[in-house]
Specification:
The complex is a heterotrimer. Chain A is an all-alpha fold. Chain A is built from 13 helices and two strands. A two-stranded antiparallel ribbon of chain A has the order 1-2. In chain A, helix 1 packs antiparallel against helix 2, helix 3 packs parallel to helix 5 and helix 7 packs across helix 9. By secondary structure, chain B is of the alpha/beta class. Chain B has a domain of about 160 residues: 3-Layer(aba) Sandwich (Rossmann fold), CATH 3.40.50.300. In chain B, the strands form two sheets. Chain B has a six-stranded mixed sheet with strand order 6-7-8-3-9-10, sandwiched between helices. The radius of gyration of chain B is 18 Å and the shape is globular. In chain C, helix 2 crosses helix 9. The chains are: A mainly alpha, B alpha/beta, C mainly alpha. Chains in contact: A-B, A-C. Chains A and C meet through helix 5, helix 10 and helix 12 of A and helix 4, helix 9 and helix 11 of C.
Chain lengths: ~325, ~250, ~300
Amino acid sequence: MAREPLINIILFALFPVTAGVAMVLDEPFIITLMTKAAILALAGVGLNIALGLGGLVSFGHAAFFGIGGYAMGVLASHAQSYTPIMETPILIEGTKSMLVIWGVAVVAAALAALLIGVLSLRTTGVYFIMITLAFGQMLYYFAISWPAYGGEDGLSIYIRNDFPGLNTLDPIQFFAIAFTVLAAVLFIAGRLAKAPFGLALSAARQNPERVETVGVAPFRLRLVAFIISGAVTGLAGALFADLNRFVSPTMFSWQTSGEIMIFVILGGVGRLFGPVAGAALFILLEHVLGGLSDFWHVYLGLLLLLVVLFARGGLIGTLAGKETAHD
Amino acid sequence: MTEPVLEVSHLKKRFGALKATDDVSLTLMPNEIHALIGPNGAGKSTLIKQIAGGLRSDSGTVEFAGRDVTALGTVARARAGLGRTFQISSLAMEYTVLQNTVLGALGRDGHVMRFFQPVMKNRKLVDQGMAALTRVGMADLATKRTADLSHGQRRLLEVAVALTLEPKVFLMDEPMAGLGASGSKRLTGFLHTLRAEAPILLVEHDMDAVFALADRISVLVYGQIIATGSADEIRRDPLVREAYLGAEDAA
Amino acid sequence: MSLILLIEQVLNGIQFGVMLFLMAAGLTLIFGVMGLINLAHGSLYMVGAFAAAAVAGWTGSFALALIAALAAAAAAGALVELLVIRRLYDRDHLDQVLATFALILIFSEGTRYIFGSFPLFLDIPAALSGPVLLPGGILYPLYRLVIIAVGLLVAAGLFVLIAKTRIGIQIRAGEADREMIAALGVDISKLYTLVFALGAALAGLAGALVGAIQSVQVGMGEPVLILAFVVIVIGGIGSIKGALIGALLVGLTDTLGGALLPTLFATFMEPSSANTIGSAVASMAIYILMAGVLLFKPSGLFGAT
């Protein structure tokens, strides 16, 4: 059991160390890869709140990832073309401020999670999986068919958005931003899991009847968890769009939902650092296997199959021994 | 005249052609242990669910501390002060024993939507959880994983969680099952003292415990209460002897 | 919109719905009998389409192409069931989702490896191409009518299979109680492989039939798979009847929504934005339909509560 915190620390330190070494060696591509891993890990940390803690198998988290991405795309594209988003009844202008964009992304994703959650959480099991999947697809097709923001082609942003006091176009500085956000959210998610809310939410996953019997409604717990989860994934979406300076309906696609889920599973469900390990492994595989073969998804598929069938604790679970994480 | 804490009137529940409960009425008075017995399939489990809120009745009412709770669900009835234990243990199995009672204390406390302070470092809740464990004699098992407990220990933990709720009424579904003779005897002693805090509606197969504890006993057969009375009255009731013992012989 | 155009759209909707039914029937059967959620069902659809396109390319025979599609999809289904799926019956839905998602990755990339990234084309056979004149002076493609007929025949066949045959009785018993069926002396693992292969064959048939009106390419299965999910969520998981009605509802809603909503919106707003908003709403119409159904029936129209 004591091995898991140690693994977490090493794993976590690997991010800035790799990025730092890459900076010294003047390998900006590696820094960008680490930034991508950190952002995808953040998306996974978001999903893990619903999936790992709450047992809510959402196959539609691309919805929130995409909303975060489009929050960035819409605000920044209006700012770069100097056209307001709307003039009546009140004037709303675009912005290039990362902090404002994050705020909008989080709020928009949380609102979407509230709506999707209220409808989806009436169901359980397979219905829930399929419904969240369907809502993700609904937004995907909406993004494709709505021409104002690029439709199928997506939106390009020429210059990365601003962060006070930093040059966001410098890879290492943008990495620092993404990594700091990841660290902060991991800290909050860790507290959340141990807080009264986390205790009750996880109990509702293990045994909803028990939670009802002590006078707490599982639905409310799950809805709040779903909203927090969606908001975090939305924040990751905004960062991801900023990393690429591009947003397209692909962010909403069901493959994106599947990949976010893969981060969580490869690393280990319900483990705080599971998505971090999973995203890092995913990026590593994409880079190494992708370099070896154009068809690296076959190997990713085989690996995922093996993990699901034979190594159910994921990467961290396998490294730390079979015991699940507990206080 | 004292008012009943729990008053069940004319409850009915039908599953297709089967009348699981058929016009069941009973009361639970302050400080009373009222036992509900009956052969298997008599409708006890259905009745418990109807009282606890897990199953909507076709007709009839459930009044609780003078308030009609018929329209309320499980959560609202628990918040109104109904402490239930399950026939088949219903606990958070991945949690430690203490976490389960802290969950109960948290439910009683009501402030679930707290997102930052570690709950297992909350003095008040942990103390309440420990106190409940101590009362059922499980304090030394506090850090054990619930899934690793024996069946009897799980029954006791069910009771401990119910204690943390500080309910106005206990609704206990076979708490003695799986305890063994000595454990059963100890729990009998404990329930005897517990009635001073809140009355208990006790569903139990252990007849020694029932006859030792119950102020009143109701006998449920084929969804109907065929007799209610003291232990002696029930023992002597010819209808009970025929229906109940007859049914058990047949089984 | 003229009446003739409307009737055409209704027929298109029914044709689309019938195709969805072939997909949804397999999904719902597999879920009903084995309790398995199978994301790789779309891959079997793709396997069918590719097998048909390849065989049609070699032999020029559409009939042989259809047979190849059925055989290839059924064989792929049986193989996958034996190697992977049967390890998942006792797992939770999360494991099933992930493992079958992994299968999609393997199937898609494997197909890309064999056939390349360029779409293949499957021609409608000459005997079935061209329009027919329907009563009322409507010219409608014969092939699409044939698809409707094939779909309805399969639906009828499935109902007979499940209601009247020995296998159907075993399937229904398997839905109700797995231990009971094992106790009756039925070889349950054989039954499961058979049901899975049957579902796969239906998906392969759908892929081949649709392959002749669309291009055959990697990734063609997943959009259909997700629509099939919407269908069985609306119809109620496990119900063949629900799958049929859900499929027709979804097919009609999608087709008529795309055709009618822009026109409808144009009655109260300017044409250009009516077109934009109308088609955007139309693209979401089936999901709105699904949300509406679930609001009133959380386990679908014909689902067990």
